[in-house]
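Q: Hi! First time doing this. I have a protein sequence and I read that you can turn it into a structure. Is that right? Here it is:
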Amino acid sequence: MGKYTVISGQNIYDIALHIYGSIEGVVDLLMNNSELSLAATLKAGDELSYTDGYIINPDIVAYNRMHNIVPANGERSVYYKEPPVSCSRVAVKIILPHAVTSGNLAIANTTPVYIDWGDNSAIEEMSPTSHPCHYRHYFDNQISHPRKIRIYSYGITEIDLSGLDASAVYVLGSNAIERFTLQNATLRLDCVSSLEQVYYLNLSGVKTKSLLPLLENKKLMTLDLTDARITREVVDEYLIGLVKKHRGRRNCEIILTVEPSGVFREPERDENLSYILTCGMEAIWVITNEPTWNESVFWKFNINGTIYTSQP
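A: Yes, that's right. Below is the predicted 3D structure, encoded as structure tokens:
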């Protein structure tokens, strides 16, 4: 039977990580220390018994010894973790309010995905799957600052972050995400502009002050803004932006429940025969009536069930 002396700032998870290389070692600590509980507050000098020679993750133990690391995270209670060397790039980072106690997401991926949930749990590995798999996680600690979730992968093709109550999302580097869903969130949409391959965006119920980042998604074929908590001015700004940045863009179906301003009609032109757009509905007229925009596949706007398209 081994004896472990607690140092300042350590909690039960730190000690489990140090001895066993995994927080799963708390089970052994609880079995060998009858007075110990998950809610116990440890202080420097306390002595705990453990099963000598019992190691769950020898790589973590060896790493800590090699670098003279003694986990002691204090109030943060989050230890440092690294994904496999073969997948060391952060693909998506999500920020959550500190009071959130659980979350879920869905991912389809062509290569393994590793998730650091931002608590004391070990990194979770997800095998490749062609259809989205759902994962729920209950955070095992309380923190006083925003929680950061990091997703490591090179091959995410579809992701749904609606169940995370995210306050911010960052998509980092080149990615293969084709379908992206984030419903009922309140945040800036800058993350969406870096989705180079995305053709389906579901942002229903989103609350945001600008849709302009979506202008960068030129391969987009479906944009769902059903029940989005946005103003008419935000919608108008985006639609007019589509007309101004139409080159190299795929034809798209856009679903709206916020009515753009103005009347669906051909806008006036200036001396150079360029359109003078004064409202969102005029922008929709241009998009759906310009022949070069609708040569083979047609633009389509569904606004509260009313369809605007040049499709026969």
